[in-house]
Batch of 2 targets.
Target 1
Amino acid sequence: MSDIAPPVAALIEEFSKLPGVGVKTAQRLAFFVLRSPSDQARRLADAIVRVKESIIFCSRCFNITETDPCPICSNPARDQEAICVVEEPLDVLALEKTGVYKGLYHVLHGALSPMNGVGHKDIRIDELLRRLETGEFREVILATNPGFEGDYTADSIKKDIKGKLTLPDLRLTSLARGLPIGGDLEYADEGTLSRAIEGRRDL
Amino acid sequence: MSDIAPPVAALIEEFSKLPGVGVKTAQRLAFFVLRSPSDQARRLADAIVRVKESIIFCSRCFNITETDPCPICSNPARDQEAICVVEEPLDVLALEKTGVYKGLYHVLHGALSPMNGVGHKDIRIDELLRRLETGEFREVILATNPGFEGDYTADSIKKDIKGKLTLPDLRLTSLARGLPIGGDLEYADEGTLSRAIEGRRDL
C-alpha cells in the first residue's frame, strides 16, 4: 500500500478487519466510500459510533438492548416461565420474526468449541444456570444452532441442568430437526434427511 | 427490523448500502462491530470520516490524493510525455506496484456503458482530451479493463483523439492481451486464448 494515500490505506486496513472482508473487498469498500456523498459516509461513521455508545447487554438475558432490562425481559405480556436459549442476538431476531414464541430468551454469545478453545467461562452458561435456579421456569428450549458446536453446547447445558440443579418439573426441549420448508428432498443432506426420517410424524 | 434496537438497525442499514453487502452480511458486520472493542470501532468510524475530509481528486490526472497536484503528477522524475489512461484509482495502484511504468496517469473514474447510461460526460474523457491538446505527449496507453465496456471506452477515446485532435506524432497503445502468467492453457477462456494466438510472438 506504499503508493496509496495514507487515509485511504488506513480505511482499507480497518475495513479488512471486518469478518469475511479480504484486502480486495476492503479496497472496493474504501473506494466506494471515497466516491459516495459525504453525508452518506458520515451516516455510516456515526452509526458505528452510536452503536458502541448506546447498545448494552441486557443484565438478565444478555441480548443487545438500549435499556436494561431489555424490552422483551421487561414486557409483562411475555410468558415468564419459558426461556429460549440461543447462541446470538440475531437468533433472537429470527425467532421473534416468526411471532410463534412468546417467552423469554437467554443469549449465550457463542457456542462451546473445544477446538477453538471456547469453554464454559467464555459464554453465558453460568448466568443461565443462575437464572433457572432463582426463577420459576416451566420450560427451557435449547435453540442452539444445529451442528457440532451447537449440539455439543446444548448437550453440555442439559447435563449441567440435570447435574447441578434440582428442578424435576423443568421441561427441556430442542427445536425440531427435519426438512426445511421449500427445500427439495433430493438436495437435502444426509444428516437432515436422517433426522427427518427419525422424527417422522403420523398423518 | 422492528424488534432490533434502532441504533443496530441503523448500522445494519448503512452497512447494507456498501457494494456487495446484503442484509445478512450487514447484520454480521453490525454484530461484529457491537462485539469488537470500542477503540477498534472508533478507528473504523474515524478512518471513514478522515478519508472524506482529506482525500481529493488531483486536478490533472483525477487520481485520489491528499495534495493537488498528486505525488505522481508533481514528480519531475516521471516521464512527462507518457500518459496511461485507466478506469479507476485502484488501477493506478496495480500498475505502480509493477514498477515498470514511469509516466503519468489519467483516471477516467469509470468506463462508457451505454447499457447502464454511462456516457461521455460521466467520465473524465473531455479532461483527457484537453490534457493531450495542451500538453506535449509522445504516447497514450489506453489501459482500460479488458472486456466489453473497457474496450468500447478505449475505442471511443481513440476515435476522439483521431477525430478531434491534431496530434499526428502521438502513439496510441493498449496493454497486451494474452495468457496470464501462472495461468493454465486448458483453463483459459476462448477470448483470452484467441488473443494469445493472434498476438503470438517469434522466439
Note: The longest strand of chain B covers residues 79-86.
Target 2
Amino acid sequence: MGEERYHDKHPFHQRLVAGSLSREQVQAWAANRYYYQKQIPVKDAAILANLPSAQHRRVWIERIYDHDGREGTRGGTQAWIALARATGLEEADVVSERYVAAGTRFAVDAYVHFARTRSWVEAVASSLTELFGPPVMVRRMAAIVERYPWIDPAGLAYFETRIPLAKRDAETALQWIVAEATTPELQDRCVAALRFKCDVLWGVLDATALSSGVFVPA
Amino acid sequence: MGEERYHDKHPFHQRLVAGSLSREQVQAWAANRYYYQKQIPVKDAAILANLPSAQHRRVWIERIYDHDGREGTRGGTQAWIALARATGLEEADVVSERYVAAGTRFAVDAYVHFARTRSWVEAVASSLTELFGPPVMVRRMAAIVERYPWIDPAGLAYFETRIPLAKRDAETALQWIVAEATTPELQDRCVAALRFKCDVLWGVLDATALSSGVFVPA
C-alpha cells in the first residue's frame, strides 16, 4: 500500500523534494497542510471516544498532547505554524485558513468523519500511514534544507520532533490491529481503512497542486 | 456567485460543451457524477429531517420522489444511469462506483454532511445552485447532441426531465430563504452555504479531470 499510494509518490511531493517548487507553491503546501495538522487532534479525540478500555485511552491520549502541546509547551500544530512562517507566510494568514483549498477541507473532513463513525479498529488502522512516514520525513527535511535555502531550517523542528513519535505511534497502532483484526473480513476492512487514509493525504496534495498551478488543464 | 463559481466555468465542463473530451473522459464524467446523483436523495432526506413544519416537508419530499422514482416509475438516479450507459458504460460498473474518484466522494460526502449538520435554512440555501442550472443544462444537452454523436440522444432524458423540476425547486427554495434569512448575519450564512455548494460541484469536476487526464502536472 505504501509503495503505491503513500503521498510521497504524488507529483506535488516529488517536486517538493526535487526542489522545483516556487516559493508560492511551497507556501501553498504549508498553508493547506496546516488544516490537516489542525484537525489531527480532533480526529484523535474522535477515536479516543470509541476506544474500548482505559488502557487504550491512556496510550492514545498522548497523541492529543503531541499535537496540542501541554500547558506551557509547544505542540505539533504550533510547530507546523512555525514551519509555515519559515516559508514566509504570516501566522494570521495561516490560522485564518484563507489559503486552504476547498478540496483540502473535503479530504481532511472526510478523515475526521471516518474516525467518528467507523469502528475503533478501522479508525486506528487508518492511522497506519505513519508506518510509511518517518523515512519520507527524513528525505523531505534534507531536501528542504538543501533545495530551499530561503527557508529557515529552524522551521523544520516539526519533523525532528515528529519522526520518533510517528515511529512509536505506528508500532503501537500496528500491535493493536494485529491483535484485533483476526478474521479475513476485519483484515480487509483495515486494509480499506489504510487505503482511504492514503486517499485523504493524496487528496490534500491534489487540492494543493490545483490551487498553486502545479496541476493545470492538459 | 453563479457567474464566478458555478461549475459551468470549470475547465472540464468547458471542454465537455466544446466537444473536445474523449469518450473515456465523457465516461469519467458520467461515472463520477453518478455518485453525486445517488447521494442527492440522501442529502434531501437529511434536510427533510430538519425542516420546521409539515408544510415544508410536504413540499420537500417531492425532491426525494424525483430522484428515487415512485413505485413503477423511473427517477433521476435511474435516468442518470441511462445517460451513463448511453456513453458506453456498463450499468454494473457505474453502480459499483469503481470509477468514482476519491476526491468526488470527499466532495459529495461533505455535501451530505453539511445537510445533516447545518440549520435547515443553510442547507436549503446550499441547494440554490439550481438557480444557475437550467440554462447550463440546456446548453450542455445541445452540445452533447451536436458534438458527441456517438452518445444516443435518448440517454439525455435526465436533463429534459430535470430542467423544469430544477426551476420549480429553485423558486421554492429561494422563497423560503428570502422569508427566513431576514438578518445580515443569516444572509451571510446563506451566501456562504451557496459558495460551499459551488465548491462541491467544482470539486467533483476537479476529481473527474484529475482522474481522466484533463488536468495534468504542469
Note: Residues 184-211 of chain B form the longest helix (28 residues).
